[in-house]
């Protein structure tokens, strides 16, 4: 028997799944049952008594916020005035720099030995998101939107209780140990992180540690750099490059792609990379497009744990492509110079923006939500709701984000057939986020949010301006002109855009959530960056790609994105009252009901269970899916809902036995629907890197075939583009757009945009006036809402 490796977990923490298992409280409509562990662990509570109301002027509300709703006064009762202990951070706020530092230091200190502690590498430190009842409690009494009438927690036995403080925040850490190739998941309670501001000390407590067997976590930027240096220093590689006319290793660029899983030797008992190589032409030009000269025919397998070459083979000699004169894209390299006839376009908001921000809480045009950020997903939107006048704050979604993306390539040649990147699970979208710049990435009055992440060694790094939020004019919102009177009404559309942009090797991806005044939410991905190329011998062609320049071709490929949306349409905290309906527009059969053969109608089919809810897009029938509340109706008696409207889409073109589908079986359908479970976060499982497991994640979860008739619903929408590269995609690809929309469907009683005020009409330029020539600087256009006239 092989000797047992020393575990990374500390000796006094029980390892294994039982140690980190969380008991989730049972939810009942209208109120929530508190976890008995929460109460037993000493969290203060107040029993509900009769006849004594805590009003908005009491100490309890004075410590919350002076703007807390006075409607709360009838919701809480007690024998004495209650003093809520308002925490510094909302339970869903991203971890602060101090919290990340406390978490990493706590885990390192809990290591079983000095060797284990020295070998710890911190892949990810994220907020351990609490149970939904904790979030509901925070939103009721401690943070905006302050909704005590929606939440009265109840302990076991039916006794009404009111906690006076929220439980401590927790961090979840993914730690890789280079000493023993072991991956562990730690949970750290952040007990006194903010006490340092009062002269105290940061404190954390490791409460669980679980060893994850047969997995490899995502790769890190430090590993990329070390892998590149290891290959450049390897003698046989230098000889292979010398054969291609390159002796200066400073010209060589190496992208250490994850190995994937294609055969037994790719198993996760080793931490592997299969790098792809390129070569610049000019050593003194760091801005040169190095991706323009791919190095073909060299095969390398690298052990990232020990940073050594396991396999090397110069399999096929292909000369380096000649330098392409059109390869570069910086201003100094543009042949013919830059355009000189483009005039400035200024976005001016003289009165400031229409949104309000309180920490990570955002309000805009009746929308409100919280902003989050993780190293894997990047931007996360929490608690999306709409303030609907007398109907109050109406929930739409609990959590929405982009949880994975997969990029399969269609060339069967090595190394291109191995290009099947899981850019979220193998690299991390948030870890690769940009620091955005005003005037370039975002225009207008911009609110930025910084992001804090751990680095490989456990330090804290800040991505300044990682998230951008701003308003955009979006053309006409609605318009009608009466042909009899000539009277016209028109409204301009404005949207709130929240976004981040990341670079994964050669490609850039912009992820956007747009909120509209008509109640619509749009998800959009913008694809740009540089094509991943291959080299051709003289006279060689390749049908699996497009020739971009002499000796260069770009393989055909696909980009798939997976959005995870925990929908809570019209649900109060604790309610599980949603269902999903598939809608197809179909032609009526010929007969007495269709005598003129012109009839068609919307046919509805309820998706009752998870196995039934594996669905594909169908543009021929205008297929869409509606998430409906099973208890709430609109003014015509129909169930309220939001519908998912697909944009352009595709399915994977690889064969059914392609190895990529072992790890990405979730790509087989455009829509999956599951019942909410807090541990089901990622469609390919938590560790897709080198995963040998078939159908892990969504395909396995839905085998439970859980009921969806009245449930806490999660939509998993898979959407993508098939990219047949063009010459016009070179040297940098113009942005391609793909996405979908969440549109109210019977959610409102009429158009929610009807109350948008008209804009002030301004004539800046008389187009028939020849005083304004092409060389004249035009006045700035502004759009200012004005009060609606009382006259028609």
Radius of gyration: 29 Å
Task: Please work out how many helical segments DSSP would assign.
Answer: 10
Strand percentage: 25-35%
Determine the fraction of residues in helical runs and give it as a percent range.
under 10%
Oligomer: single chain
**Overall form:** globular
Q: Averaging pLDDT over every residue, what do you get?
A: 86
Instruction: Count all strands and give the number.
Output: 37
Termini separation = 89 Å
Structural class: mainly beta
Low-confidence stretches: 11-84, 195-200, 765-769, 771-782, 787-792
Specify the biggest β-sheet: 10 strands, antiparallel
Active site: 423 (proton acceptor), 507 (schiff-base intermediate with substrate)
EC number: 1.4.3.-
GO biological process, one term: amine metabolic process
Family: Belongs to the copper/topaquinone oxidase family.
Describe the protein in words.
- The active site is at 423 (proton acceptor), 507 (schiff-base intermediate with substrate).
- Its EC number is 1.4.3.-.
- It holds the Pfam family Cu_amine_oxidN3.
- Residues 217-319 form the Copper amine oxidase N3-terminal domain.
- With 792 residues, the chain is mostly beta strands.
- Strands 15, 16, 17, 18, 19, 20, 29, 32, 35 and 36 form a 10-stranded antiparallel beta sheet that branches. A 10-stranded antiparallel beta sheet has the order 21-22-23-24-25-37-34-33-30-31. Strands 4-6-7-8 form a 4-stranded antiparallel beta sheet.
- Strand 13 (298-303) and strand 14 (308-314) form a beta hairpin.
- Mean pLDDT is 86; it is low at 11-84, 195-200, 765-769, 771-782 and 787-792.
